Amino acid sequence: MRIVIIGAGFAGMYAALSAARLRDIQGASPDKLEIALVAPEPTLVVRPRLYEPNPETLTAPLQDVLKSIDVVYVKGHAEAIDTRSKVVEVAGAQGTRKKLSYDRLVVATGSRLFRPNVPGLAEHGFSVDQLDDAVALDRHLHGLSSRQASKARNTVVVAGGGFTGIEAATEVPSRLRKILGKEAQLRVVIVDRNEAIAPDMGAGPRPVIEEALRKLGIETRLGVGVTSLDKSGVTLSNGEHIECETVIWAAGMRAAPLTAQIPAERDQFGRLLVDRDLRVPSVSGVFATGDAARAACDDVGNYALMSCQHATRMGAFAGNNAAAELLGVPTRPYHQKAYVTCLDLGEAGALFTRGWERTVEMVGDVAKKTKQEINTVWIYPPKAERAAALASADPERVTAL
């Protein structure tokens, strides 16, 4: 028997850990139940930190962890899924292809930045979505020091006033001062089509965010969108043109395209609809997790967000349940009633809220210390020691926060 997990992000990593944990508990050998993880590299990209400088350092190796728990790493890109034959086709180096059969499939392919067909976006826009994107932005920012000083050079427009856009925008001033000098006259503008900043955060935390933006001198353009980009800057839907040499696109996420190959119902973000065990109900033997799945967190209408906080725990349940079905033991319904947010606000500190109502618990430097601990400790993989690694993946106890 074989479980195939596609993806080495937070959900895929914990799916592998959790499946291996249950296999170990049930006394099944790796020969009886093989667990294979498919990914281009055996590396976790610490995606929540890609708004920070030096993004090339924001990865964590997984090879030793996977070896310690007897998970087979398959190098390559999963390019095709045949759910009738239960086969995944993996494209490897130099055009090689491999077909990998499965008894259970865990789709943990994550999400991608939504890039609409805005003129000039592909040519002139940057992002902090994937590792390569963040590295390209970092190189561009450092390259600004070799350009002639101007208002355009010193201006950054961030398209998107949600979580990612705010973290990217509030980090920019300190990043650019280190590159261009402390005396550089910087301008950062957040553009969002919503009438309020951080629309998903609600009214409670918003004054803290607005005060942080004022403190950092960050402007907002609300109720408008970016309609085009060119070498001179961006044009907004109200006709305003902002001269700038840096545009960071942070306007929404969609499930990775591979999920479209699963013949099942999806939501408006492309996420597969799953039951409480994280199965895709209409397709035999397929589970979806993390940003690839629309999953209920509780019985009162809250659904998992596209965040590592939810992906980590969802991954543990999906891996456990895929293994449980093959080992003939009960599955565990996914639930995640506890929910917090910790929003980085750059040199203005951070904001920590608890619950779906987002009750503010910490702000400023106190919240910043918590954010730094989350970013540097809590979300990293466990150590490559078998007992500790397996113990870290108990679905009922897993949390990224």
Automatic annotation (TrEMBL):
<comment type="similarity">
    <text>Belongs to the NADH dehydrogenase family.</text>
</comment>
<dbReference type="InterPro" id="IPR036188">
    <property type="entry name" value="FAD/NAD-bd_sf"/>
</dbReference>
<feature type="domain" description="FAD/NAD(P)-binding">
    <location>
        <begin position="1"/>
        <end position="315"/>
    </location>
</feature>
<keyword id="KW-0285">Flavoprotein</keyword>
<dbReference type="GO" id="GO:0019646">
    <property type="term" value="P:aerobic electron transport chain"/>
</dbReference>
<dbReference type="InterPro" id="IPR023753">
    <property type="entry name" value="FAD/NAD-binding_dom"/>
</dbReference>
<keyword id="KW-0274">FAD</keyword>
<dbReference type="GO" id="GO:0003955">
    <property type="term" value="F:NAD(P)H dehydrogenase (quinone) activity"/>
</dbReference>
<dbReference type="InterPro" id="IPR051169">
    <property type="entry name" value="NADH-Q_oxidoreductase"/>
</dbReference>
<protein>
    <submittedName>
        <fullName>NAD(P)/FAD-dependent oxidoreductase</fullName>
    </submittedName>
</protein>
<dbReference type="Pfam" id="PF07992">
    <property type="entry name" value="Pyr_redox_2"/>
</dbReference>
<keyword id="KW-0560">Oxidoreductase</keyword>
